[in-house]
Amino acid sequence: MSASMDRQRAKKMSQIFRMHGLSLRPDAMKALSDATRGDDNWEHTLQVLIMEVVPLVKGGHVDAAMVNGAHRKLRARNTQRPTLSLEVINAFSMPALRFDTQRHALVADNNPISLHAAAPSKSAMYTLRMSMIEERTRRHDMFKPPVLSRGVVQKEYIAITSIDALLGRSGTHVVLGFLAELEEGVFHLEDGHATIPIDLSEAAVASGLFTRHSIVLAEGEVLPSGVFQVRQLGLPPAEPRARSLEALGNLDPLRPSGSSSSSPSSVMAAMADTSRAEDASGVATENAMLVVLSDVWLDDTDVIKQLATMLHGYEQVGAQLMGSGRNAVPLASFFTFVLCGNFSSPKLAASAAHGSQLRKLFKTLGQVIARSPTLARHAHFVLVPGPDDPSLSAADVVPRSGLPRSLTTDLTDAVKHCELATSPARLVLCGQHIVIHRDELMVKARRACVMPPSPDEPLQHHLVKTLIDQAHLCPLPPTESAAYWQYDHALWLHPSPDVLILADRQQQYQHTYEETTAFNPGAFAADFSWMVYRPSTGEIETSSLGGEA
């Protein structure tokens, strides 16, 4: 490298460090030049070094000893055996939350919670959800009132009026509230303080599915009869993950405080320090993939045959070694297979022998996986129960607990890395937050709609938008999807996930809304199709063995 190029690089390095509030001593500049010599991607390496140096700095000055120490750490990390950063989070272990009215923020609730909560917990569930959505909405630029400042032109914003403040006020107002059917055929808006009957006959609807018990923004006016005439009906706006995380502060919505988890894939750490998460195991992240199947009917011989064929294909790829010597690992170490229920056909699920047969079927699944020994030893398998599968909790109430271990002992003995997840299941894979839910959300949501959705978009797009805007997996009445009152927070999509997998019995689809990529893998029992997600690129691949059945 010429002297002029050396000077240009040194100047650029100094600028990058100054952007982080750091100044380089002369000996540190030489150490940095040595550390990045011959590195075509030296700017990325420099950013990683800065993250290692920052905790060591006192007074804002960086010397050669700090740079050399950070460089040694970086080299040691790169020579370690690559491992997949994966964490499976149980819905029932997520910390309970409450809304602090003084701070206007969500905080941890340290009170004990139960599946069989007392009656007041039901209203508390809806109040907490309403508070969360209201705070998100008021943080949005469209609804945030301007800060008064002399000589500054005030921006326009939409003021939200509480329902009890509508009394005696004329003109058009915007109201945020639950869409409730308190009497048959008569809809009301409810915001935790008051309720008001509404007339939707002239309402224009925006995108989304407007279901009973969803939270909506309604624009209209109060008629002399006391009915709120809705002119425009919409969903609350989605909130970017970064803004949600900023509002949460130090609160981790996935893990209880004092959790022993030291996973580098913490969603909070990943959001705050993406460069460190990316560098932690570049080989693992680059080769990681999430293979998702739904409706794996183990009592169907064709399903078992095609599942074995699929696994054999991944076995051949996964047997390739990454690295050399003692640090070499098979590519299968970076594969995660998510098998979603139902794990039996409707015919078997309805029979009296369902429970006794399932133990044999899961033993068969273990035998099928064991025929691909590299996958059985190194790959990760996550099983998510369906609505017809046996569960330690009520099958028709969410969140749904994992499959009973008494039925899956033979499977877990045959597969080294096997997790019996809840539904919804949450994975933190390579620093990305992934939510997986196996239900019939599309069918239930359409059944609970109070108005037909706009025909301008596919139903799948309406569903994804609804869930992200509502920040909830099941914004439905309990007649369609009942929830454990004190575990409703386990169904929240706040902050919004990176990936949302809705394993309904529907056609395959993928759709990106705001910052969330959503997809449905299709029903493996129907056409032997599945989907693959690659965290390194965010790409989703559609796969199928349909032509080979």
Structure description:
The structure is a single chain. The chain is of the alpha/beta class. The chain has a domain at 3-78: Helicase, Ruva Protein, domain 3. α2 (26-36) packs parallel to α4, α3 crosses α4 (64-78) and α12 (354-370) packs parallel to α14. The longest helix is centred in the first third of the chain and has 20 residues, at 120-139. The radius of gyration is 27 Å and the shape is globular. The termini are far apart.
Strand order of the largest sheet: 3-19-20-22-24-23
Q: Could you say what the CATH topology of one domain is called?
A: Helicase, Ruva Protein, domain 3
Question: How would you classify the helix and strand content by structural class?
Answer: alpha/beta
Number of strand elements? 26
Mean pLDDT, nearest integer? Answer: 89
List the helices and strands and how they pair.
Elements: H1 3-19, E1 23-24, H2 26-36, H3 42-53, E2 61-62, H4 64-78, E3 86-89, E4 97-100, E5 105-108, H5 120-139, E6 173-183, E7 186-190, E8 195-199, E9 204-205, E10 215-222, E11 228-234, H6 241-248, H7 267-272, H8 274-280, H9 282-287, E12 289-293, H10 301-318, E13 321-322, E14 329-330, E15 335-340, H11 346-349, H12 354-370, H13 373-378, E16 380-384, E17 397-398, H14 405-414, E18 417-420, E19 425-429, E20 432-437, H15 441-448, H16 459-470, E21 482-483, E22 499-502, E23 509-513, E24 516-520, H17 524-527, E25 529-534, E26 539-544
Parallel strand pairs: 1-2, 8-11, 9-11, 12-15, 15-16, 16-18, 17-21, 20-22, 22-24
Antiparallel strand pairs: 3-19, 4-5, 6-7, 6-10, 7-8, 10-11, 12-25, 13-14, 19-20, 23-24, 25-26
